[in-house]
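Q: What structure does this chain adopt?
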Amino acid sequence: MRHIVLSGISQHILKELEHDKVKTIEIRSPHNFLSILETDVGDVIFLTQTSLEDVRPGTTGVIAKIREKQISMQRVVQRTEVFYEEAEVQLARLQLEIKGYARVRRAECCALGEATFVDADEMLFFEGR
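A:
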């Protein structure tokens, strides 16, 4: 099945999602943020701790359904006696519900500014590959 990829997700976050079954995460990295913009509530996505450049056939990860999606702007202020700097950062919040585990069959690399997709097969716990 074809899924949008969120890559470089911390192992800690993936374990919490596995344990709690539902988890809200924040996405700030540009490549994952661009992928999020292509999703809707109800879509099933592929999450992996592997970096985007290393996602290839055989990469394993978690598949999860998007229960809620929120895009917002956050103001970041850094101030010292010498300077004052203010920036705005866009971020996405996703509430995810784990559906299972998957292994990448085929990765579709994307151009700069586009979402990354993979064809991934759901793994059953008794598969011994």
